[in-house]
Amino acid sequence: MSSREAFSSNLLLTLMEDDDLALLQPHLTRVELGRGQKLVVAGEPIEHIYFPEGGVATVVSTLPGSGSAEVGIFGRDGLSGFCAMMGAESSPYDTIVQVDGATGLRADTATLTELTEQSPSLRSLLARYVQSFIVQLAHGIVCHVHHRIEARVARWLLMCHDRIDGDEIMLTHDFISMMVGAQRTSITVSLHILEGVGMIRAQRGRVTITDREKLEDIAGEAYGLPEAEYRRLLGPLGKTAARPS
To answer: Which residues contact 155 (CB under 8 A, 6 or more apart)?
Structure first.
């Protein structure tokens, strides 16, 4: 294990140049990230950037009268509030911890922005992450249009699985419903289908992945392209190789 990996399990931090990590490390504070915690509050100034060391955080869009929908996720592969480093003081979306049990490293937004201006290599790393996240967002839109609900559920389960240790994911049906953009009853039916063919085991508040290969099969093209882009631009991500694009 390298000194960077010993310092943090956040992949962006482990991928940093030694000089960049040395520049950033004195400004990082390790904090607990609990389920339901808002890392970014829609419309409010983004004062801190978080580098999660586990769990899953979601970027959530809420429309008055229409409810909430998840538009993207990240965990130890990324960071929160990156739009603040691109000149935006706030975001129209909340970022919420949905799967907890982990810590994160927190930096003041102003400090991190200043450091990226000092270091071209740090700026390049974070810009490549932003590109990979944009690909994830765009691919999610395509999936909602072209893939049936079972494939979309499989995709989000695989994405969560990529970002945690082990095979058990603490997920409620309501959260999966928001992730996939479907009614809770449809999610329950889809989980029963996936469980019936041995891909998962669904219990109250948790889903256990029992056959990832089959889950990737049913996800098909809904899963793989954003993961491949992350690997191309940054480094390893996930438990298995993504499908070719």
So the answer is: 143, 147, 219, 222, 223
